[in-house]
Fold this protein.
Amino acid sequence: MTKILALDASTDACSVAIHIDGHERHIFELAAKSHTQRLLPMVDEILSAENCKLQDLDAIAFGRGPGSFTGLRICMGIVQGLAFGANLPVIPISTLQAMARGFIAENPQTSLPVMVALDARMEEIYWGLFSPEKIPQVLSEEYVMKPLDVVVHPIVANLSKKFIAVGPGWHYLDLHDCAPEQQIQYVHPNAKDILTLALEEYQRGNSISILDAQPVYLRDSVSWKKRERIRSNSIV
C-alpha cells in the first residue's frame, strides 16, 4: 500500500505525480519562468484530487538534475519544506534517466540504447546513456560538455550511431556527425516517469533523509555565474 508523490521542475516544464495503492494521477505543464508560482499549487491540487494528506505519504520523489539551476533549486526548496514538515524520506531521481524512461514507455519495442541530451546552455549539453528497459539502467556517467567533445567521446564513438537520440540537446548542429537517424527531441522530464523509477527505488529500500538530498548540477554555480557575466559583457 505505497503512497509516493513525485515532483520535477528541471526544465521549462513543471510536473507532479502521485501513486496511491496502484492508482496514479499526473499533472504536466509547460511553465517557463513560472515554477515558483505553479509547482506548490500543483502539489496541493493533486493531493486534494486524491483526498490525500501530506502525512499519508510514504516518500517524496523529485528530479534531482541535471537541468536548470533555477528550476532545480525551486524544486529542492519545495521538497525540503514538504519532507521536513511531514517527516518524510525522499527519493532523488536522475532527470536524464526519467527522460529515457518516458521515451521507452511510449516505445516499448526499442532495442537500442538511449542517449539522452539536455541543453545545458553556454553551448554545452548534459548527456547520459541508458539501456532500453522498462526501468532504464545507467550505462554511462552523466556528463556536461560541448557538443564537439561529445562527438569524439569514446562511449559515443564506440556506439557507431547504433543508439536512439532523445531530448532537446540534440538540436546542436555540432552533434550531427554522431547522431543516429532516429532522434526524438521533444521530450521533457516528467514527474510520472520519475514516479515509476522512484517506486522501484522505494521497493529496494533506497529512500534517504532530506538532510542527505542534494540537486545534481554537473556544473558548479560559480562557473555558471562567471560565464553568464562574460556572456553579458560580450553582448554589451
